[in-house]
Structure formats: C-alpha cells, structure tokens
Amino acid sequence: MNGVMTFDDTISAVATAIGEGGIGIVRLSGNRAIDIADQIFRGSTGKKKIADIPSFQAAYGSIADPDSGEAIDEAIVIVMRAPRSYTREDVVEVQCHGGPVPLQRILDITLRLGARLAEPGEYTKRAFLNGRLDLAQAEAVIDVIRSKTDASLKAAVSNLSGRLSDKIRSLRQEILTMIAHLEAAIDFPEDDIEEITAGNVSGSITIVRVELDRLLASAQTGRILREGLATVIIGRPNVGKSSLLNALLREKRAIVTDIPGTTRDIIEEYVNIRGIPLKIVDTAGIRETADIVEKIGVDKAREFVAKADLVLLILDSSAPLTPEDRTVLSLLPGREAIILVNKSDLPPVLDMDEVKSFVGDRPVLKISVLTGAGVDELEQTIADRVYSGQVTSGEAAFVNNVRHMNQIRQAGRHLGDALATIDAGMPLDCIAVDLKAAWEKLGEITGDTVGEDIIDQIFSQFCLGK
User: Which residues of the sequence carry a binding annotation for (6S)-5-formyl-5,6,7,8-tetrahydrofolate (predicted)?
Assistant: First the structure.
C-alpha cells in the first residue's frame, strides 16, 4: 500500500491487557482523535490543551467526564500526529491507572463523544493499509506479542523489521525481470531469440526455486519458534516422567511419588530449551489398569503421542524391559523421538541391544533426573534437531507462518510448471503465464496481491487494541 488512506471514523480501544496493573492505556486513532481527547483532558495547570501538545511529548493532568465534570483518574496523555504514528493517523494515548473500572469509564466516554470501538487488530490493519507495514510485517506484530522465548522473539522481530519481506520482494523482482525478457522476445521476434530467451529464463527459474526451497526448509523451525514444539513425555508408570518435567522446568511442577499411577491427568507446560519453546506434556504412565480415571489418562497419553512433534520416551536403566515398556516402545513407528534411559546413577540392568531393536536410529541418551546427569545433553539434542543445521533465528529470514509457507510452496509449483513448459518447447507466452502466477503468489505474502477477505481474516486474529 502506498500513501495514507483517509478513514471517516476514529477508533478507540483499551490497548493493555485485561486485569489490574500499574498502567492502562486507552488508544485513539483517526481524524477526530485529538478533538475527542481535548474534550476529556484537563491539564495540571488548567490551561493545557491536547491541540497544543507537541508530537511525542507527554502532558500530565486528569481525565474528566465533559458532561458532568466528574474527575475519573489522573493521566498522562501522549499525542502522535499523522503521519508519524503507528497508524499514520493522528493518535492519542491516554495512560491512566491500570484498573478495569477507570479504563472502561474513559473508553465509554470516547465512544460517547464519537469514536468507534476498534475491531481486533484494526490499529495494525490501518498501519498496513496506510503503508507503514506490509502484510508480512503486520503478521509479525502478533508473533512479537506471543513470543515465549528469546529465540522466538528474535525471529518475530526479524520479520517485523522486514527481513522476510525484503527476501520475498527480491525474488519477485527476479521473476518480474524474467517476465519482461519473455514479453520483449514475444513483441520483437527474431531468429533463434525464443530458444535463447527460454534457455536463459530456465537457469534463472532454477536459481529462484533454490531460494524458495531454502525458505521452506526454515519453515519447520520457524513454526516451532512461533507455536512451540509439541513434546510429549511417555513411559510406563514410575519411570521418571514427572521428574523429567520438573528437571526441565527447574521447579517442582508435577507430583512425584513411588506410587505407580500418580499422574492420572495430563500436565501441560511451556519450557524454554535453548531458546526453543517446548509445549511439553507429562502423560499418565501407559499400562493396563482397572482404575477408570487412570485409564482415561492413559488413553489421552496415546492421543498426544499421535499428535506430537517430538516424543521423549523414558526407560528405567536399573530394570529389565517389562511388557509395559514394550507397549510404550510399540508407539514409536512414524514418530520423531528421543529415547531417555533414566536412573543411570544406578547399576545398569536394561538390555540395550533389545532397546535398539525397537528404536532404530533414534538417539538414545543416558540420564539421571535425580542427579541431573544428561539433562544438558538432552537439551542440546533437542536444539540440534529443531535447527537441523540451519542458521539460528535472527541470522536469516525465517518462515514461521503457515500462510507464508503455503504461498511459497504454491509459487514453487508454478515455477516447476514453467520449467516443464520450457522442456516441452511450448510458446514463450505460456511460460510467462506460469511465472506471473508465481509472482502473484509471492505477492500475497507481503500483501501486494492479496484480496480483502484474506486481509480481514489475518487481522481478526489480533487482540483488541492492537
């Protein structure tokens, strides 16, 4: 989007989280933001008007109901005039005490004076429509808000700064250059020029496809950094599952006893492992049981294994494999897993050859959740498997969004179709059709060629006030 659009209405919303806090913010944006704020703000000297406050300077005073004159709260007001604001419109932020009552009272008054309650994500949507952010950067805003580790934050900030957008625009420009060469050859045909042009374009298409494949290779890591690695801890009862969760959390979150079946329900926590957010689940011990509640927990454990990105399967080094262990090991086929041989501080009894016959080439680590031995190695193994030799977040453009991944994949298919068209010796205009389709798909990532329905769907996922 280029330039600043003019919206007929002014929007208002509480921009801070629901609940009690030291500070709460009501944000106004639009052509009447300053006028509405002027009607409710009373400067500490009694003379200060919002219209007189320079941009990006704070003024102290109070907020009052303009009809009754009743003071509602002390406040600091900040004015950000268009186009140097988040939305590129006039923006006023009222910072008061962060209680739900004063915030709601102030919001209600702004609505009574002519503002409209902002829709979820509408401030960022206006920033996009007014050209301050492209669509990929706008989507990165919500990733910054939802970041759970430094690594996920770094990846989100990288995309917010435009690193992914710059890469996509560069690839679109390369495709556009190919299209221009094809159209020039179509408009000015000469002997053998079609064959030469098709050959040159074929090499350029291959180069762009390699770059798209590199972006797709980052998608799994990017998704994990954005959403968390769905990890499930499984094993027979009393093998150390809850103790492992506590060791990874560095706190006693799960109850640990010598009584089998202590964990009957599912315990779910986020764990920060070397900057990677693990959405980790401690399940009930898998065994045959007559206890109805425990049986439900066991069934849930099996369901989580089927959905998990990573399975941490625990065995007891100090005991031989039991039928229950073999039942747990039978769940491994088709699953990404790390095998943990716990209680390595005790004399070894477990037959490792039999274990390896079940686990194949999956990593097997000896640990002791009692002493902490092997936990650091486990964390490094998880990090290595997530990054899979790729650069870490912040060092390159990361695809961490399913929508972006789908558009890149579809663009790659269109480029593949273009190569097939060249190999079949078809006319140049047929090649151009495939290239234009790839160019448009990549444009949907940055918002250059996206429809209004997609835009509405994306911003509906944002929180109110952002």
Answer: 27, 93, 132, 466
